[in-house]
What does this fold into?
Amino acid sequence: MGKIYTVLGLMSGTSMDGVDASIIKSDGNTEYSSELDKYFEYDKDLIKKLSNIRFKITIADDLKRISEEIKELEREITLFHVKVVNEILNKSGVDIDLIGFHGHTIFHDSNRKISIQLGDGKLMSQLTKKKVVYNFRQNDLQNGGQGAPLTPIFHNMISNKIVEKFKLKFPINFLNIGGIANITLILKNENLSELNKIFAHDIGPGNCLIDEWMRKNSKENFDSNGQYAKSGKTDNLILNQAFENLSANLNYGKSLDIKDFDIFFAKGLSLEDGASTITDLSAKIIADGIDYINSKNNSAPLRCLVCGGGRKNKYLLDKLKNYFNKMYIEPIDNYDIDGDFIESQAFAYLAIRSIENMPISFPSTTRCNQISTGGVLIENF
It folds into this structure.
């Protein structure tokens, strides 16, 4: 067992609603305990600014065109995260060794080896007087990887804990339904030095199309519990055409961004019918992705543990369950782990692995050419 670090992980996802913060204790290997999880909501003005800047960036050249606006918003985002850190540390009294600072993704293009997360690690370190690890994706991109998903190594560690505590069996799927859905397959209980049995892919839209539909057609930011979808009627013609078009362009070897998808195909549908059709489409795409990773690796997991905001959409989960007869699809919360904070805990864990020069991405998870280490350590105080 190596040194046990106390680390605060910060994650702001594509839903653009706020910051998930988690404190864990871990050696970055097999030792791990969750100490604190808390969510901090962005105010409406900051959400609007994030939404506007994502809208303005469609290609890499746009990053230069609005560089000053990006710089200004990055400072604002960083200061919000600093406020989160100070509030947590002041109230909890916990002494942390470092911060894992993911930042907020506004642009991702693996072909150009560009992934931009708003978040100034130097400023964070200066204002919090803590060591900060950030810029987790760039090293993987430079090594030919997709820069995502990065959570599989964390899924691997907690899978061992779950299997041991609840007497489960491998293989197990971990399905994260955020803005984008990604899947991790753990084939069997391996030592962390034997990582060839972990596989992962981005598999398509998770919440992003549903959320965009709700934002553009109602006063809601998302479809709580899938209530609008449940009250609507799916247009099967539109569903099948959209699925055919979307699936034909999906590449499981490529990382995805919410800008890779749009809701134009649902134009003209009522709020409820559009929500139903888009949710059915998302479930169908996710089911295809689960089938792909399992069939490719000749596995038949008995369980798919779901984390991320999408697990709270009961309509989406029920639709997804209809595609599988012999696999339990259930929230990871059933195994004493809060599914809202998997990624914030993961980036705390990845921060430890980064400073210990341990790998965070692998050819079987991000398609990198070689096992790659991760984030950049900043000590600016």
In short: The chain is about 40% helix and 20% strand.
